[in-house]
Fold this protein.
Amino acid sequence: MMSRVFEPTLLDGKAALITGGGTGICRGIALAFAAHGCDVAITSRKIEHLEPTRDELRARGVRAAAKAADVRDAAAVAGMIAEVAAELGRIDIVINGAAGNFICLAENLSPNGFGTVVDIDLKGTFNVSRAALPHLKAQGGTVVNISATLPYLGTIGQSHAAAAKAGVDSLTRTLAVEWGPHGIRVNGIAPGPIEGTEGVRRLTTEKSRASALTSCPLGRMGTTDDIANAALYLASDAASYVNGVTLVVDGGLWLRSARILGED
Ligand code: HXC
């Protein structure tokens, strides 16, 4: 079954900042938000990963900005957010999608390898959310943290990413409670394997993908549109009473299997 992005304009007049927005899941979110009338700023470490998506966003008739920044670097994040706010005039929505991952058994993983993924996924989510807070407070807003189902079960080779994403889910709940009184909702999305993404390329084999298809109750991989539609819902007024949840968008896959990523 093909999925699609619903139209028309759920986010007219809003501005979103999307980390990791040049590629994969977050590129899909950026394009869907633009289709719904939202100005969009995308950021990642490398400007060349951003420019093609920025141009696609502009072609949809919204204002779009591309800014290179490493979410691990709090000072760089603060500078990037100041530039985005100056260029777009406001920030209503933050999507924390920047992430790093690879498969490595814990016994072979260096402390720096573990820390690098925690720094990108968890500290990066904190750094960006915290720096964006004054802009979100200005008119109320919403944060969506991209998480994963990895920590729900013991996923082999993912001690670093699973710990980081469990931390992200915890941060989602805490910030929902702390920032709700400012009119800011904080939620998350935990995607399953999404076809055509860097995550699936890096973390799965032909065999593990076939096994996921067999296990998934819906019998298919997710699409970037599936995640974009969930993000549209959580970021829009359609979810105005939804706060502090992480929405699993995986076709029911995690309920069926402890995945062994990269298994041959
Ligand atoms: C073991 C590894 C490793 C590997 C890196 N390291 N790759 N250890 N196996 N394959 C170790 C290094 O040896 C080093 O430790 C430490 O990690 C930092 O590595 P660097 O290369 O110096 O870090 P950096 O250049 O900052 O790159 C970060 C990265 C990289 C995460 C390691 O892979 C990256 O840039 N990724 C961004 C893109 C990405 O990963 N996208 C996929 C996200 S998928 P030492 O001790 O040697 O110094 C995703 C989905 C999850 O998040 C959900 C799936 C269902």
